[in-house]
Inverse folding.
């Protein structure tokens, strides 16, 4: 995992724990959003938050399609997210 992908994944993980109250013990870069109880509505909210945080356009369904923080980070970096 590249350094930029790792940093974006860390932003996602931090958001999951601190804003969306996922248990830090349950969250990892490879955790499936669905298995943590992140439904499509929460992922839409997270997409809006990530758009603001990263300065890129994150479509409503992209996080759901990615499935996990690590895959979402890869997708976001491929769209130009830099941190």
């Amino acid at each position: 995992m590249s350094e930029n992908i790792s940093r974006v994944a860390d932003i996602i993980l931090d958001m999951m724990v601190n804003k969306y109250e996922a248990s830090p013990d349950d969250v990892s870069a490879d955790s499936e959003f669905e298995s943590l109880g992140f439904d499509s509505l929460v992922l839409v909210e997270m997409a809006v938050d990530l758009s603001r945080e990263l300065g890129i356009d994150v479509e409503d369904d992209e996080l759901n399609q990615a499935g996990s923080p690590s895959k979402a980070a890869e997708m976001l970096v491929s769209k130009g997210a830099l941190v």
The two ends are 15 Å apart (CA to CA). The CA atoms of residues 15 and 21 lie 8 Å apart. The chain has one domain: 3-78. The longest helix spans residues 3-18.
